[in-house]
Design brief:
single chain, 96 residues, alpha+beta, three-stranded antiparallel sheet, 3 strands, 25% helix
Length: 96
């Protein structure tokens, strides 16, 4: 999954030869046509790349199950209720 094009290559000095390889690969990943996929959980943009797939953010589905990736983590509040953004924000504020 990718969102905006990074402006720097993480961990690579711009003068290193690997920096140019990184930039070339990144441009290959982001260029070309993405196919718009419509699902019951919302649309997403998909592109085949090499042996894999690139999904362009935003990805609004509740899980990656529609991509064939099973959920392996669930965040819960008290009493095993699913966590919400407001719950996480209030818990963070209580620490301060």
């Amino acid at each position: 999954m990718i969102s905006d094009c990074p402006s720097i290559s993480p961990g690579l000095n711009p003068s290193e030869p690997h920096h140019e390889i990184y930039n070339t690969t990144l441009q290959e990943m982001l260029s070309g046509d993405f196919k718009k996929i419509a699902t019951s959980e919302g649309p997403y943009d998909l592109k085949a790349f090499g042996k894999g797939r690139i999904i362009k953010a935003p990805f609004t589905a509740n899980s990656f199950a529609i991509l064939g990736v099973d959920r392996d983590f669930s965040a819960t509040e008290n009493k095993n209720n699913p966590a919400t953004d407001s719950c996480m924000e209030s818990q963070a504020l209580k620490r301060f």
